[in-house]
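Morning - S-adenosylmethionine inputs below, output right after.
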Amino acid sequence: MSELKTAADWLARYDAHNTPWDRGSAHPELVARIESGVMAPPRAGARALVPGAGRGHDAVVLARAGWSVTAVDFVEDLAVDASRALAPFGGTFVAADALEFTGEGFDLIWEHTFFCAIDPAQRASWGAMVRRNLVPGGRLEALVFPADKPMETGGPPFGYGICELLVALGKGFSLEQESALESRLEGRDWLELLASFRLAKG
Ligand SMILES: C[S@@+](CC[C@H](N)C(=O)[O-])C[C@H]1O[C@@H](n2cnc3c(N)ncnc32)[C@H](O)[C@@H]1O
């Protein structure tokens, strides 16, 4: 696979419509969890951050469910369409390096194919971004993919699992739930897990 490091690299893939990660809709597991109520906002105005949001399909579903959503992606050309999709539900798209992003304090971070998209050398920065942006007691919900891809095969997508997330997150986080998704999505050749982490209250 060609190198995917800079915003320009990713933009070239979007421009070429070579975006196999983008199904044109939110991840069905996220939709199911929202519909079942387990990912309902804990209170009015609760904030959710979606780093590496791409076209913002997941972010829109979260915003429609009542979360006050900030979607971040460093491909500026995604901003117009993503902002237009989020605006009716009060969501915002920020064109920025998500690893450097600092917001107001989020109750939820939704991780989906962002961790696997960054260079493994940047994983500590990803963990720092999560720690910096979650409020005490906040939760990280991660759709872990590709969970059974050998690390040595490179990427993106770079293989990883719960251990790599815990190492990147550091102290203060507990793994509350972990489950393998039973059915594989079309075009996803590797295992998907869903993992819920909670940042200690203090
Ligand atoms: C594999 S795509 C996943 C997009 C989206 N989460 C989805 O599921 O459709 C990875 C996304 O991360 C973005 N990205 C990669 N590195 C980034 C960074 N440092 N800051 C912000 N966005 C980044 C890319 O532009 C791309 O849109």
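Note: The chain is about 25% helix and 25% strand.

O.
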